[in-house]
Amino acid sequence: MAGETVITVVGNLTADPELRYTQSGLPVANFTIASTPRSFDRQANEWKDGDALFLRASVWREYAEHVAGSLAKGMRVIASGRLRQRSYQDREGQNRTAIELEVDEIGPSLRYATAAVTRAAGGAARETPPPAEDAWATPGAWDEGPF
């Protein structure tokens, strides 16, 4: 959608993704990604860590179950998604605002690790051919004369 803030974050999971189900049975996984910038200090001849960003993230439906079954605390991940702002009142009645990442894509970073990928059964993981009644799906159907 236009106007959404899309970002990519590289960092480590601070805990195992927490898989829960809504009252209607919809799975959701919540987790936090810690991203710490590093820069090289030439005077000290060493790497220095900056202030860490702790970003709450969520993923829904079958995707949530895949994330919860594949990722664990400490794993370095690459996550891309949309920032969402949410306002709420805390227990003391104070108005608060939270910024969260609604994940579109996430996976392990292979910079310092390896991974074995297994295709999930069912759902959106399967590719289906286009319906036969679609003229664009039938080879040659579109070139039957001038436009």
Task: Tell me about this structure.
The protein has 147 residues and is mainly β. It is 6% helix and 44% strand. It is built from 1 helix and 8 strands, in the order E-E-E-E-E-E-H-E-E. It has one helix spanning 62-70; strands at 6-13, 18-21, 27-35, 38-41, 46-49, 53-60, 76-89, 95-108. A 5-stranded mixed beta barrel has the order 1-3-6-8-7. The chain has a two-stranded antiparallel sheet with strand order 4-5. The longest helix has 9 residues, at 62-70. The two termini are 32 Å apart.
Q: Structural class given helices, strands, pairing?
A: mainly beta
Low-pLDDT residue spans? 125-132, 134-138, 140-147
Global geometry: globular
DSSP strand (E) fraction? 35-45%
Strand order of the largest sheet: 1-3-6-8-7
Give the termini distance in whole angstroms: 32 Å
- Provide mean pLDDT, rounded: 85
Describe the sheet with the most strands.
5 strands, mixed, barrel
List keywords for this structure.
five-stranded mixed beta barrel, mainly beta, disordered C terminus, two-stranded antiparallel sheet
SSE blueprint:
Layout: E1 6-13, E2 18-21, E3 27-35, E4 38-41, E5 46-49, E6 53-60, H1 62-70, E7 76-89, E8 95-108
Concise account of the structure shown:
By secondary structure, this protein is mainly beta. Helices cover 6% and strands 44% of the residues. The strands form two sheets. A five-stranded mixed β-barrel has the order 1-3-6-8-7.
